[in-house]
Write a structure and sequence with these properties.
By secondary structure, this protein is of the alpha/beta class. 42% of the residues lie in helices and 11% in strands. It has two domains: 91 residues, DNA polymerase beta, N-terminal domain-like (DNA polymerase, domain 1, Orthogonal Bundle); 245 residues, Alpha-Beta Barrel (TIM Barrel). The chain has 14 helices and nine strands. The chain is elongated and about 70 Å long.
Length: 352
């Protein structure tokens, strides 16, 4: 079982750390695709307690004033009280009992993954700060994780202008300093592929990034030939490393369903193989993208792959279970999945 601090690791000296317990609950709710308001309740409570000393938390618990604090309600108060009493909170225990792997199969491949090349923070349309995404990536065992927030044209996702992206690079550098080599957060972007195949960010900024994931987010019903030219042009861009969720389809979920885009997959994947661009196996359960037949085609054409979570919240980093199960079933060789590589080899590939 992956995730930040499984139950046997949130206790110390017979007493559970309330912040660790609250974060663990939020993680398990996210990976189980629970309602957002529930997740926010536990993350908000953890954030509130982080501003207090351990002595003040214990004092408030004994005085019954925890709920005077912002973000502490009846459920989170109960969790804190049980944790301070040295118990595994009942809310956490129930979640842990049902928190097995998210998919059958793929466990061996999951153990070989060293990182994740497609994640989002609250700088674009993710739900958590960069620091929380990095810490959770470390806690689930990653050696590296790429932060790939959206590019400027995707205004609905609060895409990053060049100026905002420059500021984000400074934050990532600071986070890496705090991590002290335990995990490396890679700089990156999920850059929009524009109608003509150009990438939606300045060349200067693209050159400064560790990882560039290029994805189509607009005009998904474009004519087949035009879409093929668009995608091939993006793949040929010298700074494209990964072709993200290539069909754009949605097969389930709150946003409804969406058919896959029409394009010449053989032409696009041949370009990927020729230009050393990895085809993403997107692990989000509502995407399942590419479909199985296209993964098989990409395999036959000699493509590399990047098996990514496309996480928009810390608990979604565990969505990799879904992608690993599919890749293993389709017999994708682990050595052709770039995020099984050590970080030095990975960066020679992306930046070489």
């Amino acid at each position: 079982m992956s995730g930040p601090r499984s139950t046997d690791r949130v206790t110390s000296g017979g007493q559970a750390d309330p912040v660790a317990v609250l974060r663990r609950i939020a993680f398990l709710l996210e990976r189980g695709r629970a309602e957002t308001y529930k997740v926010k309740a536990f993350r908000g409570a953890a954030g509130t307690l982080l501003t207090l000393s351990a002595d003040e938390v214990r004092q408030r618990a004994s005085q019954g004033t925890l709920r005077d604090l912002p973000g502490i309600g009846s459920s989170t108060e109960k969790v804190v009280r049980e944790a301070l009493a040295g118990e595994v909170p009942s809310y956490l225990r129930r979640l842990e009992e049902t928190a097995g792997p998210l998919a059958e199969g793929g466990r061996e491949l999951r153990g070989l993954l060293r990182g994740d090349l497609h994640t989002h923070s609250d700088w674009s349309d993710g739900g958590s700060p960069i620091e929380e995404m990095a810490m959770t990536a470390l806690e689930i065992g990653h050696e590296y994780v790429a932060l790939t927030d959206h590019s400027p044209r995707l205004t609905v996702a609060n895409g990053l202008s060049a100026a905002r992206l420059e500021r984000q690079l400074e934050v990532v550098a600071a986070v890496n300093g705090q991590l002290d080599g335990q995990l490396r957060m890679l700089t990156g972007i999920e850059v929009d592929i524009l109608d003509d195949g150009a990438l939606d960010q300045t060349e200067e900024m693209l050159e400064r990034l560790d990882v560039v994931v290029a994805s189509v987010h607009s005009k998904l019903r474009m004519d087949r030939d035009a879409m093929t030219r668009r995608m091939v042009a993006a793949v040929r861009h010298p700074r494209t490393d990964v072709l993200g969720h290539c069909t754009g389809r949605l097969v389930t979920g709150g946003r409804g369903t969406r058919p896959q885009s029409s394009f010449d997959a053989e032409a696009v994947f041949t370009a990927c193989a020729e230009h050393d661009v990895a085809v993403e196996i997107n692990s989000r359960p509502e995407r399942v993208d590419p479909p199985d037949d296209l993964i098989t085609l990409a395999l036959e054409l000699g493509c590399l792959f990047s098996l990514d979570s496309d996480a928009h919240a810390p608990g979604q980093l565990d969505f990799l279970d879904h992608g690993c199960a599919r890749a293993e079933a389709l017999e994708v060789p682990p050595e052709r999945i770039v995020n099984t590589w050590p970080v030095d080899r990975l960066l020679r590939w992306t930046c070489g």
